[in-house]
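Hi,

I'm pasting everything inline rather than attaching a file, because the server keeps stripping attachments. The sequence lines come first, and each chain or strand is labelled.
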Amino acid sequence: MFSIPPKYVTLLHPSYLTQKILTINSLSMLSIRNIVKQYAGHTALNDVSLEVKSGQVFGLLGPNGAGKTSLIRIINQITAPDSGEVYFNGEKLNQSHIDRIGYLPEERGLYKKMEIGEQMIYLARLKGLSRDEAIKRLKLWFDKLGMETWWKMKIEELSKGMQQKAQFVATVLHEPDLIILDEPFSGFDPVNAEVIKEEILELNKKGATILFSTHRMESVEELCDAIALLHQSKKILDGPIRDIKNTYRNNIYIVEYSGEKIGFNGSQPFELIDEKEGYDNSHAIKLKLKEGNTSNDVLQYLLPKTRINMLQEVIPSMNEIFIEKVSLIP
Amino acid sequence: MNKILLIIQREYITRVRKKSFIVMTMLVPALIAGMYAIIAYVATDKSETMHIVNVIDNSSEYKGKFQDEKYVKFNYPDGSLNQAKASLKDDEDLVLNIPANAKDTVTLYAKKKTTLSLTDNIQRQMNDIASGISLVKAGIDTARLHKIKSNIVIKSSEMTDSGEKSTSIGATYALSFAGAILIYMSIFIYGAQVMRGVIEEKTSRIIEVIVSSVKPFQLMMGKIIGVGLVGLTQFVLWIVLSAAIGYFVGHNTAASSQNPIYIFMHNLGSNAGYEIGCFIFYWISGFLFYSALFAAVGSAVDSETETQQFMFPITLPLLFTYLLSVSWLFQAPDSPLAVWLSMIPLSAPVAMMVRIPYNVPTWQLGVSMALMILGFLFTTYVASRIYRVGILMYGKKTSYKELVKWFFYKE
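And the predicted assembly:
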C-alpha cells in the first residue's frame, strides 16, 4: 500500500469538497448526443452520448482504439461527426467556441526551430489573445513553472519533459473554459507530473472544466469527479466515480485479528474467500457478506472469538472496474 | 485579427529570417555583379591585345594586300622564314608563311596558341585577296564588281499599333528564356517549400494543435500565401539589387553598351510594364496552382522521402513544357502547340512566358489568364479536401486510391 502524498490530503479536506460541490453545478459544459463517426471500413464512434458538467474533472477512459481521440477531435472541431450533436455550454458547437477550448493532444509537438516565447505567443494569438496579453500571461506562467530562461530557446534545444511543460502552458494560456488533455502525464517524470497535476487542479478550482483521457487509473481516482468508459466505439459506462464505485461494491471485506486461528464451519454471516497467516499469531481473512448481513454482523460474530485489529471494505479500484467491464466484451 | 493573417505572418517572418533566405537573396545579385565583371574583363583586356603578323610571301601575290584591323597589323619583313621566326619577340606576334604554289598549305607560326577569330580573319582576307587576283586574271574589273555587289544587312523591325520599333532578336529570345526559366524554377523552389512546411508540421505533430485553433483550409492557404510572399520578396530584392548593380556598372565602365545584360535591360525597358505585369501574374497564379498540389502531397506523406510517387505526376507536365519551351517553343511562339500549351493551366505559366515577348493576341492572353484563375481555384479546392484528411493520418503509406477516398470524405 502506498500512502497518500501530503499535498493530496487537501483533496479530501472538507473545504475542498465543499468547494467542489459548489463549483460543479448542474450546468452542462459539454453535452454529447448520439455521436456517430465512421471512417472507411470502421466505426470510430457508435452512438456515443455523455454529459460533462461545468467545473468537473472528467475522465475519458478506454483501451487503445476505443474512439477517445476521435471523440476529442470532434469536440475540437477538427473533424465533424456523421450524425449526432455536440452542445458547448448550452449552445450548439460552432466556430466561436474554438477559442474557449484548450487542447493538449496525445502526440505532442511544437515548431522545432521557433523560439519558445514567440511560439507560445503565436499559439495564444491563434486562440484569440492579443499579443500584449499573451506576453503578460506568458511571463506569469514562465515565472511560476521556472521557465524564465526558456524564452529565447528553441524547442529542439529542450528536453522532452521541458517541451511537454511548454506545451502545457500553450494549452492553457488563453484561459479556456474547457481544457482537453489527452494523456497529459505521459512523457513527464514523476516530479513534473506532480507539478502539472497541481496546475490542472488549480485551473479546475478557478472554474475550468477538465476533460482528460488516460490509461493511468490511479490518476483517474485521484483527479476525476466523473468518467466515461469507451470500448469498441461505444460508451459502456459513465457517471460520477462515487456512484460507479458504489455500484461495483460487492460486500467484500478484509479483517485482521490476533489470537488463535478461528475455524469457520459455515454458520458465520459471511463466506470465506481467502485466509492468510502473519507473524505473531496475526491472521487476515477476506470475506464476502452473505445476503442480508452487514459489517456489524461480522463484528458481532467475531468479537467474542478474538481480538480484531482492522475491518475494511474492499472497494474495487477504477482499474478493476475498467478491466472487468472491458473484458466482458471480447 | 484574422487568423489566416497570423499564419501568413508567421510563415513569412520565420522564412525571411532564415540564413538561407538571406544568403540566396544576396547571392544572385552577387552573381550578376560577377557576370558584369567577367564581361567587362573580357571586353576590355583580352581583345585589346595587339597581334603583329609577319607575312613571308613566297608567291609575291599577297604583299601589301592584307588590311590592318583594330587588333591585327600586318608586316612584310624581308628575309627567310627562319629569320622571321627567330626574330619573333612578343608572345602575341606571329609569322604567316605563304608558299609559292597556292596549292601548298599556308602556315601560321606563333609562340602561343592562336585564337580562332585571328585565324578566321587571316583566312577570310586571304580568300578575298585570292579571289580578287583570280578575277583580275580572268579580266574582270574588280572596281566595277565592288560597285555592283550589294551589301545586305537585316535589321528587324516589329510593327505595332504605336508604329514600328526596332527590336533585337537576341534580347527577345533572352527575355522569353528568362521568363520561362524563372517561373519554372520558382514554382519548384517555393512549391517545395510549401510541401516541406506541411511535412514539418505533420512530423512535429504541431498540426493537431493548430487545427484545433484554425481550419485546415486556413492553415493551408496561410502557408501558401506566406511562402508566396517570401518568393515575391526575394524577386523584388533581386530585381532591385541587380538593377542597382547594373546602374552602378553601367555608369562606370565603357563596355556597358556591349554588355548583354545592359542590352537586355534596355530592351525590356520599352515594354517593361506589360512584361513584368504578365510575369507577376503567371508567377502568382502558377505558384498558387502548383503549391496547392504540393501542399496536398505534403499532407499525404510522413517524410520527404515518401513524396516521390506523388511528385512525379505533378512535376512531369511542368518539366515537359519547360524542356519544350527552351528547346523549341521560343522559335515558334505562334505555333498551335505553343498556343495550346499557353492555355492549359498546367503548362501555361511557363509556355505563356515564352510567348509574352512576341506579342500574344489579347484574347489568348485573356483566356489563358481566366483559365489560370479557374485552374488554381480548382487545384486549391481538390488539395484542401485531401489536405484536411491527410494531415491527421500518421504512419501508413498512402496510395492514390486512398487520396481519392479522402477527397470524398465528409467534413
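The two ends of chain B are 25 Å apart (CA to CA).

If the labels don't parse on your end, tell me and I'll reformat.
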